[in-house]
Amino acid sequence: MKRLLNQSFLTNLISLVVIVAGYVSPYYPETLKAIGFFAFSGAITNWLAIHMLFEKVPFLYGSGIIPARFQEFKASIKALMMEQFFTVANIEQFIEREEAQGGRVLNLEPLLNAVDYDKVYEGLVASIMNSSFGGMLLMMGGEDALQPLKQPFTDKMRLTLEEMAESDRFKQALRQGLNAHRIGEDLTGKIEAVIDNRLAELTPKMVKDMVQGIIKRHLGWLVVWGGVFGGVLGAVFGFA
Known about the structure:
Blueprint: H1 2-5, H2 7-24, H3 29-54, H4 65-68, H5 70-85, H6 88-100, H7 109-114, H8 117-129, H9 134-139, H10 150-166, H11 168-177, H12 180-201, H13 204-239
Helix pairs in contact: 2-3, 2-13, 3-13, 6-12, 8-10
């Protein structure tokens, strides 16, 4: 069924039917044969040209150009990706735009959640115990006397850090610390390495199948129009 719906097959089939009609029709047989032969020659020539793009045909120089030039195709794919999409300037603009829209590039929420506030509290208590206040605190019950302050301290510290992270001064310092250009260069280098690794895995057949899958179904119209224009020329020739 797919073959019957194929543009090339239908065009060639119609051309052959017109040729046969030229041999059996009592009306304008020579004209019908001219239309059929011209249409068939135009369609089959275009079909062969398309076939030669993807397959090597013996004794036909220049056929199989896509698999034969697959290294150049790989280089072109890399150039397209690196020069049009993943440039340092494009990545730099993206980072700066995301920062300007709310700092989505660097989300500090996970960082604040990762802070061990209990350890910070323990460090504060240890500092107090080792200071001149330690002896006085021991008379008041030692570290246990500070235990009621633990939860208010950790809550207050987290709130303070969140307020600092949201302050304009902190955001300005963060933007100055983040070098968008350097980040863009680093990302570009990593992306280029990923592309190189993937392209190194490509074989001539994979490149051929990739290009073929993109354009071959559209190239079928070349066969159709080759048959149409060939038929028109055949009609002109037949009536001339």
